[in-house]
Each structure stands twice: as structure tokens, then as C-alpha cells.
Amino acid sequence: MARILITGTSTGIGRAAAIELARRGHDVVATARRPETLVGLPAAERLALDVTDQASVDAAISAAGDIDVLVSNAGETIRGTVEATPISEYQRLYDINFLGALRVTKAVLPAFRARGGGQFIFVSSVLGRLVIPLISGYAASKFALEALAETLAIEAAPFGVHVTSIQPGQVATPGPGKASVWNDDHEAYAPIWQAITRRGTNDRIQPEEVAKTIAELVENPNPPLRLAVGRAAIRQLEAHRAAPDDQPFSYLTAS
């Protein structure tokens, strides 16, 4: 059985992954900015970890001891047009979703390299491969995460380290409901807001589906570099690949 550190386990995918992995007999090191939110999780360790704080990252990795797998899950999202969203919000999201994952990766990687093995699982998104209007900040951070995962997969392969980026579609978690919304007063953008709203939530998948994917990757001796999760994500990526290169792919019209 593996010892697995998961970031962002207070809610959503991270919490579901901790439960699923513990159910399968793995030693789970659950982490969150506020460790009191981890009460009740079936984890071997429950630690404070703020991915935006290097000292917090270093302390948590030290306290966790030897781990076999890092599931980099902590993240947030925002909503708003490019014109309306403040640059400070792009910076904040980038710090959490990309640099946060990078901090924890760099803290864990030397031990994996010295040991000659280990596994990174990055919880990315279908929005790391394509874009949706009003979510450019989140997509940009996930595109960066995809670049990190692919580069790391090449660099760390000689050391027996596996890297996978999973790409769920829309997941039924509290995150989107808590997202900051940067709406503007320009009526010209109203049709886009209305189109996004009309799409609804029928394609949402549950965190438990993503958690099972994570557990299967942990138990796979030869995991893939990228893995879409959910029928909607697979369908959207297929439509994106089929779209012509000389014009933007439109999520709003993808079947």
C-alpha cells in the first residue's frame, strides 16, 4: 500500500480522494489550510498546509515523512470577463493553482529522485486543454499546470517517477459556488453570460468519480500522462481536437 499526501482535502475532490484511498487500504496524509476541517477523515495524518506559503509547505512535507504519491489538488476558481477581472485576481489564482502545485512538487521531488521512484498526480481540468468564456484566469492557471506536468514527466522519468495530469469536466463541488464573480456593466457581454448560464449543470460529475480515477492511477504501475475524467470532458476534448486551427474553439457550440 502507498503513503499518499493530498493537498486541499477539506472539501470536494480532495476529500473524496482521501476517503476512497483510505478505503482501499492506503495511508493518507490529508492536508488543508485549516486542519480543523479534516476532522473525521479516515487519514493516517491530518496536517496544515497552505500551498501559497513556502514555510507551510516545508513544514507539512517534513511532518508527513516518506511519501510515495503526491496528489496535487488544492485550487480555486473565479468568474469574469478578461476586461472586468482585476489583474490581482489572476495573480492570486495563479499563485494557488500553479505556483502552489509547483511549491509542493519541488518539496517532494528530491526524495523521489533519491529513492528512485514516486508518483505525481495533478488535478488539472478540461480547462487546461481548452477554454470557456468568463473563466480565463482558471484556464490559464491550469494550462500552466499542464506544462509543468509534461515537463516533469520528461525530466523525472529516468528516476522512476510517474506523472499524470487528470482533466475532469465540471465537478459538483462547492468551489464554483464560492467563486468570486467579476461582472461588468457592459451590455455587450450579456449574451455570453446568458449562454453560459443556459448550459446548466447536467454534465456535472461527482467528486467520487474523480476520486476513483485517482485511486486507480495510484494502483496502476504504468499510469498515463493525461487522463480526461467524465463523458463531457472526453466529448469536449474530441470536439476541440476536431476544430480548425485558424479560429477559436467554441465551447458554447460544442456538442
Derived from helix and strand composition plus strand pairing, the structural class reads alpha/beta
For the biggest β-sheet, the strand order reads 3-2-1-4-6-7-9
Helical element count? 8
Low-confidence stretches: none
> What CATH architecture would you give?
3-Layer(aba) Sandwich
CATH level-four homologous superfamily name:
NAD(P)-binding Rossmann-like Domain
CATH top level class name: Alpha Beta
Mean pLDDT: 92
What is the distance, rounded to the nearest whole angstrom, between the alpha carbons of the first and last residues? 41 Å
Domain module tally: 1
Name the overall outline: globular
List the helices and strands and how they pair.
Elements lengths: L2 E4 L5 H12 L3 E6 L12 E4 L5 H11 L4 E4 L5 E3 L6 H29 L2 E6 L12 H21 L4 E8 L6 H4 L1 E3 L7 H9 L8 H12 L7 E4 L1 H12 L13
Helix pairs in contact: 1-7, 2-3, 3-4
What do these coordinates show?
Strand 1 (3-6), helix 1 (12-23) and strand 2 (27-32) form a beta-alpha-beta unit. The model has no long low-confidence stretch (mean pLDDT 92). Helix 1 packs across helix 7 (207-218). It is built from 8 helices and 9 strands. The chain is α/β, with parallel strands linked by helices and 255 residues long. The strands form 2 sheets. Strands 3-2-1-4-6-7-9 form a 7-stranded parallel sheet, with helices on both faces. It has a two-stranded parallel ribbon with strand order 5-8. The chain has one domain: NAD(P)-binding Rossmann-like Domain (Rossmann fold, 3-Layer(aba) Sandwich). It has helices at 12-23, 54-64, 87-115, 136-156, 175-178, 190-198, 207-218, 231-242, and strands at 3-6, 27-32, 45-48, 69-72, 78-80, 118-123, 161-168, 180-182, 226-229.
